[in-house]
Specification:
This protein is mostly helical. 57% of the residues lie in helices and 11% in strands. The longest helix is centred in the C-terminal third of the chain and has 24 residues.
């Protein structure tokens, strides 16, 4: 999905709004809806995942993530264990918001994204730490991709 530069914050605000007035149970249901939209991992990355590369170790759930630049735009390829649909939903939100964005737009997103979504009541502290680690991985992936380009 391509986005115009600068739309990252706006898209995240839209997603946060979708979560804002929901009860914790409804937030979980919305997160599950997002999980269904996480693109499949391309075959090239499946082999790397199967070899154990690029796992987000801070997350208890098996999450594998590649952040690359394609024509100067951020692309995220991710795989999340099926038995963790809430984590998969969160990763799908990041993919939706960040893919096609300019690296600077991704890096300018505040680190409070997880709390802005209001997921603490629904998910608990341990999962929140894992989700924050996923956001950090995206940021460091963008920084590394910029350094290589």
């Amino acid at each position: 999905m391509d986005m115009q530069a600068g739309n990252v914050a706006g898209r995240l605000d839209e997603i946060v709004e979708e979560f804002a007035d929901l009860e914790p149970r409804e937030r979980l249901e919305l997160l599950l809806d997002f999980a269904e939209n996480l693109p499949l991992l391309p075959p090239h990355y499946q082999a790397l995942r199967d070899a154990g590369e690029n796992r987000v170790h801070e997350c208890q759930t098996p999450v594998y993530m590649w952040v690359v630049l394609d024509d100067g735009r951020v692309q995220i390829h991710a795989d999340v264990a099926e038995e963790a649909p809430t984590v998969k939903g969160f990763v799908a939100i990041l993919v939706e918001a960040f893919c096609g964005a300019a690296p600077g737009d991704v890096l300018s997103v505040k680190s409070n994204l997880v709390s802005r979504l209001g997921l603490m009541d629904a998910l608990g502290m341990v999962r929140m730490r894992g989700l924050n680690a996923i956001v950090s991985r995206v940021r460091s992936g963008v920084e590394s991709a910029l350094a290589r380009s």
